[in-house]
Each structure stands twice: as C-alpha cells, then as structure tokens.
Amino acid sequence: MLAEVVKDEIFPKERLIHYNIEIDTLNTILxxxxxxxxxxxxxxxxxxxxxxxxxxxxxxxxxxxCGETLLDSENHIISETYKLxxxxxxxxxxxxxxxxxxxxxxxxxxxLDRLKNRTHxxxxxxxxxVSIPFNLPNWGELLLELDKGLSDTNKEKYTELxxxxxxxxxxxxxxxxxxxxxxxxxxxxxxxxxxxSRYKKESNTNHHNILDILKLDTEFIITTNYDxxxxxxxxxxxxxxxxxxxxxxxxxxxxxxxxxxxxxxxxHGHIVQYSSMIVTKEDYDNxxxxxxxxxxxxxxxxxxxxxxxxxxxxxxxxxNLYDKILEHIKGEHFIIVPNLHAFDAKELLDKNLIPIGINxxxxxxxxxxxxxxxxxxxxx
Length: 380
Prior knowledge:
Layout: E1 10-12, H1 13-17, H2 23-35, E2 39-47, E3 52-56, E4 76-84, H3 86-103, H4 109-116, E5 122-126, H5 139-144, H6 152-163, H7 167-177, H8 184-198, H9 210-214, E6 220-223, H10 229-238, E7 245-246, H11 253-259, E8 263-266, H12 281-289, H13 291-301, E9 305-309, H14 316-328, E10 333-338, H15 342-349, E11 353-358, H16 367-377
Parallel strand pairs: 5-6, 5-9, 6-8, 7-8, 9-10, 10-11
Antiparallel strand pairs: 1-4, 2-3, 2-4
Helix pairs in contact: 3-16, 6-7
Pfam families: SIR2_2 (PF13289)
C-alpha cells in the first residue's frame, strides 16, 4: 500500500484513507510501522493567523509563526503526516526491482527506458482490457451477448467475425441481419444496458490499473471504451466531479489544452450519451473521415507519445484504429503487450509502435494487472 505513495516520501494520513482501508486497520498498520522505525510521524499545520504552513514533531510545540501551542490552539488546522524512512524506502526499492525482473520481458528493457525518457509528453490510450476488472466484458464478450435475433447460419458468421477481432464489421453484420437490431438506437441502447448492469466498482487497487494510470499525471487520457470507469475513479482521486468528454463534442480545442486537468476523452462516445457511441463500421468511417475530428486529433496528439494499454494488437479493431491515427499522427508510440513473442514484436515495430512485453500468468486473473502496475510504477 505505502509503495503507492513512495514517490512523495512525505504523505498525509488522509491519502491512505482513499484506499478504502478501515480506519482501525489503518491505525494498526501505521502504529506497527512507527514501532519498527519504518516511518516517522509529523504534524502538518496551517496557521490561520499568519496564513502559513509548517511541520511539527509534537503538538506540544509552539507554532513557528504565531507562537501559540499547537495542542491548545483553535487557530490551526492540523493533520497527521508521515515520512518513509530510508530503511523502508530501501525495502520498497528492492521489492520494485524484483517485481520488474519478474514481469518485464528482458528483451524489452531498452524500450521501457526509452518510454521513461518521454513521460513529460505521455498520453495513455486505453482499450477494453483496462475495464475488464470492473466486471465489464471485452469487445468479443460484449458482442456475443448481442447475438439475439440471428438465425443459426448468421450466428455462425457473426461469431467468426468476432473471433477474427473484426468487431466493427460484426456490429454492421448484426445490424443488417438481426431481427432485433434494425436501428442503431436499439443496438446502442442494449450495449449501454449491458455495460451499466455489469459494472462493479472495484475497491481493491491491486485488482485494477486506473489509479496507476491517474498517477502518471498526464495532461489528459484517451479511451475507446464506452464505460465511465476512468471518470468514476478520477472523481474520487481529485475529489471533484469530472465530466467525461466526447471527442465529437469538443468545441474549443485551445481551451481544452490550456486546462491541463487530466480530463478523459472518449474517442468513440460513452454510455451517458449513448447516441454518441461509435458502434458500426459506418459510424467508424464517418468519424475518421470528418475534417473536424481530424483537426481535433491532430491538435491533441501532435508532439505527444501515446501509450496503448488494454488493447490486443492481434485484433483487426486495434490495427484499423492505429492505422487511422497513424495517418494523421506521426512519431513513435508505445504499447504494453502480455507474453509478447519477438515475431509479433517485429510487426509492431514496422508500424512505429514500440512494444513493452510483460510476463503474465494466464491462470492468475490478477497477474495482468500486477504486470501493468509494475511497468507504470517505473514511469512515476
């Protein structure tokens, strides 16, 4: 848990409360860490009389600005603060080193080093894999739930398209041949209903990567996902309401770039405004043929380094998406890929997509999350 805040070394107790740990348990952990000299306790105080902020080791100390004793004063806002001691930092450093050795495929260490040199202009680009820990289906699973209204013969062809990762053609096929989905409105509504009914917020931060991504503190985040899991956690992380942005609705590009508030851009719409969702090949082609959209994409992605997380490079969906983006956005970008073979890595490199291969135990449903977490922690 404390490894989450290690980059700051000094941290308030309130930050740990965000990790949904019961206060009694948290106090027990902190007491034990104090006893073993892994952390030191301080008090941060805000002197209202002089509008100053300072630290104290004990509440029996006098304020260094107004002279009042902190314990008896009503003019100071006081919070518990902790500092990680060097012996604990050494343990954490050793743990992170071992985790990296376990999860990073050694052949891609140089690629990770290249990525670490570009964190100042990094933009996470998130796919369906990031949302799976919240009980949400990946693209293929979502489409299989929509096969109602197809004849047996058409179901076979529909399933074949899904297995090929050709999801947009599968949706177009569904709209054409399903008796239930003769209009896009009905199709989009059912997709929205599936996502809303399946979504479960995961409180254990070891079971998802959203907070790891938020801690990269990038200018903004891009996703092709329809769900609002990222904005949901961003609301908690920033302690303020964050409205997810639909790319097509972005009116003032310069104003958006000036905000630098880690907003979430939904490239293909989201379920709050489900009519915005890009669900067929026709939708997809219209989006990327729009001069307005291309202007916005050029504006927000120029001179940026994209880090693709949660995509399968074998899916036709991702290949088409990346090709569309690459037509307008030049430069080198990165992708995190589980159990990557050198043969497949070459295909990615040919597209200026630099792979970072990670070892993932397919039998452990949380191992993929742990591996991504290990890589992202190297970027803080």
